[in-house]
Design goal:
The protein contains 7 helices and 8 strands. The protein has 191 residues and is α+β, with helices and mostly antiparallel strands. The model has no long low-confidence stretch (mean pLDDT 90).
Length: 191
């Protein structure tokens, strides 16, 4: 194979029907930095901190060496456009659990099923490759679209942390959700 093609083809770590997940690199730092300042992404994720481009570069470098996190970008299969990021983080290999988070950058890409497809790809990897037993997440109560997406994938509500987030002059509840490996397999690996 011509090695110049290697530089042109995006890496596809986990592939779905309409999206794929790929590693994040230093070439992605500026786009990732810009996404962190998208007002709607900040609201839905409860992001309160400010960031610098250099800080984002250090973050990306640190995550690439961190075996307790799998940080990936979400890209459209047909155009390679990056539409968000997803992470499996706080991976605990002893207790076989982790948590997942996701952010879709643009309203143009929300409500089209890209989020649930991306989550399924990553939790399939978590259960099927990393041999995790439990994957959890937290979602703010005002993010009803995300709650429906997580339930669609198979996550169940476990509880509520009342007034866990102070954002835009108000307190908001955080809903805890999880899915277990056997629940996932019952939904997606029926024999």
């Amino acid at each position: 194979m011509d090695t110049t093609l290697w530089n042109l083809l995006p890496l596809r770590f986990l592939e779905g029907e309409r999206v794929y997940l790929r590693p994040i690199g230093q070439d992605d730092a500026e786009g990732y930095f810009r996404m962190l300042f998208n007002p709607e992404v900040r609201r839905l994720t409860g992001t309160q901190h400010s960031f610098t481009l250099e800080g984002v570069r250090r973050f990306i470098e640190g995550k690439s060496a961190d075996d307790s996190t799998v940080l990936l970008l979400i890209a459209l299969s047909d155009t390679d456009e990056v539409i968000g990021d997803i992470a499996l983080q706080d991976i605990d290999h002893v207790n076989r659990n982790a948590n997942v988070r996701i952010a879709i950058d643009s309203d143009n890409h929300k409500g089209k099923g890209y989020g649930p497809e991306s989550i399924r790809l990553l939790i399939e990897y978590g259960f099927g490759v990393l041999n995790l037993h439990r994957i959890e997440l937290q979602v703010f109560a005002y993010n009803e679209r995300a709650i429906k997406a997580y339930e669609k994938v198979g996550f169940s509500r476990e509880g509520v942390q009342r007034d866990a987030l102070y954002y835009n002059h108000q307190y908001h509840d955080s809903i805890m959700m999880s899915i277990l490996a056997d629940e996932y397999r019952a939904l997606y690996h029926k024999q």
